[in-house]
Amino acid sequence: MGKFYKISAFTFVMVLALSFPVSGQGLGFDKQFFEAEMLTARQKYFQQTESEGAEKWDLTYNRLTLEVDPAVNYISGNVYFEFESLVNRLEKVSIDLSGNMNVHAVTCNGHGLEFVHRDNRVEIMLPETLDRNEMGTFEIVYEGDPAATGFGSFQQSFHNGFPVITTLSQPEGARNWWPCKQSLSDKIDSIDVIVTSPLVYRTASNGVLVADILTGNTRTCHWQHRHPIATYLVFISTTNYAVFTDEVVLPGGENVEIVNYVYPEQLEEAREKLSITGDYLYLYSELFTGYPFSNEKYGHAQCSWGGGMEHQTMSSMGSFSRALIAHEMAHQWFGDFITCESWNEIWLNEGFATYLTALTYEHFWPKYWDDWRKGTVDMIKSEPGGSVYVYDATGIERIFDSRLSYYKAAYVLHMLRGQLGDALFFESVRSYLRDARAVNGFAATSVLKENFELVADTTLDEFFADWVYGEGYPVIQMQWASDGKEIQVKLEQAPSVTGGPFFEMKMPCVVYENGEESVHWLHQTQNNQLFSIDFAGNPDSVIFDPEDWVLCEKTSTQAAVSVLFKPEISMRYSQLDKEIHIDIPRAGEADIYISGLNGKKMQHKRWSSFHKQFSLSGFSPGIYIVTVVSEKVTRAEKIFVY
Predict the structure, then answer these.
(1) Is 520 a domain residue?
(2) Does residue 191 share a domain with residue 84?
(3) Is residue 52 helix, strand or coil?
(4) Is 609:585 a contact under the CB 8 Å cutoff?
(5) Is 29 helix (H, G, I), strand (E, B) or coil?
(6) Which residues contact 461 (CB under 8 A, 6 or more apart)?
(7) How much is the average pLDDT of 237-242?
(8) Structural domain boundaries, residue 436
(9) DSSP class of 403
(10) Position with higher pLDDT, 398 vs 559
(11) 191, 243, 303, 434: which has the fewest Cβ within 10 Å?
(12) How many Cβ atoms from other residues are within 10 Å of residue 462's Cβ?
């Protein structure tokens, strides 16, 4: 979902949006790039629950037959349900509908059913008990003035003097305007949306327009969608729309119709700005998989918000910036085709949509790809803490936190790309988009992680623990030195928050010499780790992660050669064995001299990594000087022989 400006007497700014300065031909990087959340105090929290017994039945079909007049904030109609029992002896079902809506009747085949409407739910007694795999139906007749909770749910606004009714049900607002099974575990297999309004208006919705009927002073638009859809992605938007279409042929040969419902006064502007849509659809299909709803349509329905919403097959758009077009379209794969299984996992929707938006810069406008990386890192680091995973999903403010659920989540994906390389990264995402556990359904982080691990043949336990479930980011200092034969690199790391994780991962360092550069990925598994890079000559500089593959605070400094190249020499003398054991890390060979206190050399040995022990069994009791002379260091120690 894009982010929204809400106009209310009690609004407040939740997050200040990231912006990039661009020219008049820019990409729309203004405050609407990801618009600030503005919510009323009463809209801030919701209770994330599914109706009691929701797991006992599978919703297979809904038909919404509705009447709206954009001039009046009101809705009436009926919703037909078909479902399958998943248990034996199913006697009742519970439907979500806000308490301020009026239920006139619940029927099955024309016969009234017993029901109770309380606590924002309609509990319905079925006409007969159903066993597993048996089908049932019922219909709810209702009307009312929908409440506007969350991001609005059901909103009346105006453009150029004309009223418009739009819906936005994410996260828990569907029940405010239609009786539904509000669920993140059960998608509706198929829907029809039939909306009657005054003649001057058209209604946009999901799927394909199969009928547009003018009768007297009314118009009825019948939309049909034959793909599984999460309840919160069902929408209607009604006003005096102008309609224009386009099409694109995707890499797999599918011809996709692009249908746009826009305000008449902005028709020419919309034509120009939305012309990029086909290019984006082609790019995403080429990088990942074909557009999931290619046999129906993709399109846009203009609304009066400041942002957008990824309604399945037709995104609601408050503006037509290229960033917003890219973001909401990306959700058709990540959020619609595969939907997060809980609001705790919202990063699977928003992180991907944010990163795919950035990929449009990489492919079409490389200049802004650099800006995006640097600007996003700065945005995330504007505060030291916070996790991508939403531990407390009771607040809309936290679920849709721009810095964490959008930006940091996107950068986690960018870092995964850096860790695995392009080929494995994109194939891992394609594997996720083919996973039968997720497609046309719901997914958790574990499903995504398993696909990355399977394709890359690696474990990502540490990466996901640190970056998805952990807080903050690393503060990294790199020191380097060169002796003309090799480069020594030392990486020191501290967490941005007290008690934060140690970020174990591959760290990129770039060596520059005479206009040439080479990238070296150093796998840091402990703090103050020392790495060696074979390099004959003297580099001009060594820079830590100049292309921002790692989300971190970073510095790169050149150290004196002696600081990093001085080996630690350890000598241990065993009185029992009368042996000296000498360790000289990073030394190939060395000379060992044993002298008396008067300086007279008594023994000379050659040390190597294969010959580290020297016997003093023939020496008389006394004090001796053991001197180690290597290419890089000389060290002397006193040894007491008893």
Answers:
(1) yes
(2) yes
(3) coil
(4) no
(5) coil
(6) none
(7) 98
(8) 340-467
(9) I
(10) 398
(11) 434
(12) 15
